[in-house]
Amino acid sequence: MPNLYSQADSNIFKTWVLLVFFVLFIIGLGWLFSYLSNDGGLFLTISFWVVFFQLIAGLFYSDKIILTMSGAKEIDKKDNPELYRIVENLCITAGLPIPKIYISNEEQPNAFTTGRDKKNAKVVVTKGLLEKLNRKELEGVIAHELSHIGNRDVFLSSLVVILVSVVSILSNIFLRFSYFRGRRDRKNNSVIFVLLGFVGAMLAPLVAFLIRMAISRKREFLADADGALLTRDPQGLSSALKKISLDSSPMKKLSNSTAHLYISNPFRRKNLSKLFMTHPPIKERIDALEKM
To answer: Which residue, 82, 96, 180, 254, could crosslink 91 as a Cys pair with Cβ 3.0–4.6 Å?
Structure first.
């Protein structure tokens, strides 16, 4: 019978499988575009260099970009001693370096983690989270975010964001190329060429988006479980998730590209399908915590 630890190993394995498939998907996309356009490997070359430069830029500067987008400000221990002690105590228990702590001026209770690795991690909480949760609930949320750091989800999340952006860039380039080539070469069955290019370029970002959502949902279940083990109080995180999900406060500074980083979907709208959810349904997460 599977237990928490075997499930965690399974989730990690499945996530890496998805990521490998994602990288192969981008390489295959570059090859397909090159084949359809008969460009002698131009798009395959573009794919390689775009991936290379996006990885370098993303891994070294993605956290700064995300923090700027969220409007979060770094705090010291004297600015919020209670929050700092919670983070410090949980880091000691988890055997993690103490991350930098940021607060964003948002009424919606929420939190996320960013950074390249354990030594460069940043934990961001909203003003609403500090005001609307009690200490046990806040500990549950912080433990969840620290679990993302311990599980190296920060790196994985940044990598997925970069790969998705690469797919979108390549698709846009191919659509433009197909359009102009089609206008210049209408006599050589270019209509079929343009149609195939259009369909492929439109479907590619959708596939990339679905893969990103699948990875994000798996990581949230695992972070919930690890966070509950860290505090030894699944009820604290369960209660926090209930409060966060019921709060209707909108986010003032929010982007689709960063929504999956938060502990709960910051967009206050219902999704039509689980395929398009950045997070597992709150009820499923709460049910899993209550079974621990």
So the answer is: 96
